[in-house]
Amino acid sequence: MSRTKSYYDLRDALALPGCPICRVSAEAINRYLDGLIYEKVNDPGLRAALRDARGFCQRHAWGLDRHGAALGAAIMMRDVVRTLQKALADARFRSVPLFSLTRVQETLDAQQPRSSTLEVVAALGPQAPCPICAYEAEVEGGLMVSFLENLQGEEGLLAAYRASSGFCLSHFRQVIARVSDEAVYGAIVEAHQAIWARLERQLSELIRKSDYRYSDEPLGDEGVSWLRAIAAIAGEGFGSKPHGDGYRQGPA
User: Fold this and answer.
1) How far is C-alpha 2 from the chain's CA centre?
2) For residue 33, which of 239, 187, 184 has the smallest C-alpha distance?
3) Tens digit of pLDDT at every position of the chain (252 positions)
4) Taken in order 218, 163, 202, 143, is the CA torsion positive or negative?
5) CA 208/CA 217 separation, integer angstroms
6) Of 44, 132, 216, 241, whose CB count within 10 A is highest?
7) Distance, CA of 71 to CA of 41 (rounded, Å)
8) What are the phi and psi torsion angles at 216 (to 5°)?
9) Which DSSP letter does residue 37 get?
10) What does the alpha-carbon distance between residue 152 and residue 96 come to, in Å, rounded to a whole number?
């Protein structure tokens, strides 16, 4: 059976801490951002997608904060700012009669969006997905398909998955959503339950050793289990800050 690059990327990432899909995806996004800054700033298709998206999402926009990005980011952001200026100039405030039902309902609910400015708000909001989010979804979808296709059999990924940190909750749910074979479902769930059970034991041990009666006992792997648990539930932060191959030592 021929193996794809996604298979080898996943296999290597499973041997490292954290969700392997988060890790491989973050590395792909980092390469994509470098290519964007140095090669694609003037690409018409990308610029049009960026204008429609009203810029990058917050998470990916700050990925541009890197050496050598100033000029490319300035060119792209000027394009977006000009688009927003035009959208704001073209949108109009819509007067609503003082005693209309709509006006009464809005008066009773201060949190309700005002119909007078709905057009303005819509025009300033994204008209299309963040281009990097779209690329990220494509990369992660390919990784999930590769994982399922290469789960079992010779050199399959199941054993490596059992020994790994597992997928974060979001990616685990997305993988499960792609499963239609009961045997595959059972294998993945059994492996993931074992991963969560191992994490729970480490959290319990950290809590126990935080008790003053046992505080003289040295911390082992459980010392960073609280960080592993955050990553397991919320996802990794590989793309937002330097992460390395391990977690900070000891509870905060």
Assistant:
1) 29
2) 239
3) 578 899 999 999 999 999 999 999 999 999 999 999 988 899 999 999 999 999 999 999 999 998 889 999 999 999 999 999 999 999 888 887 766 766 667 677 777 777 788 889 999 999 999 999 999 999 999 999 999 999 988 889 999 999 999 999 999 999 999 999 999 999 999 999 999 999 999 999 999 888 888 788 888 888 889 999 999 999 987 654 433 333 333 333
4) positive
5) 10
6) 132
7) 9
8) -85, -5
9) I
10) 63
Look up residue 216 and give its amino acid: D
Query: Nearest 5°: phi and psi at 181?
Result: -100, 125
What is d(CA 110, CA 145) in angstroms, rounded to the nearest whole number? 46
Tokens encoding 204: 């319990």
Question: Going by C-beta distance under 8 Å and a sequence separation of 6 or more, which residues neighbour residue 17?
Answer: 165, 228, 245, 246, 247
Structure tokens that stand for 156 in this block: 């399959």
Q: Assign residue 45 a region: left if phi > 0, alpha if psi is -120 to 50, beta otherwise?
A: alpha
Structure tokens at 219: 């911390």
State the Cα–Cα distance between residues 129 and 250, nearest whole angstrom: 39
3-state helix, strand, coil in the chain (%, to 5): 65, 0, 35
| Tokens linked to 161 | 């998955």
Q: Which amino acid is at 209?
A: K
Helices (H), ranges, 91-181? 101-108, 118-124, 131-149, 158-162, 169-177
Residue with tokens 């140095």: 38
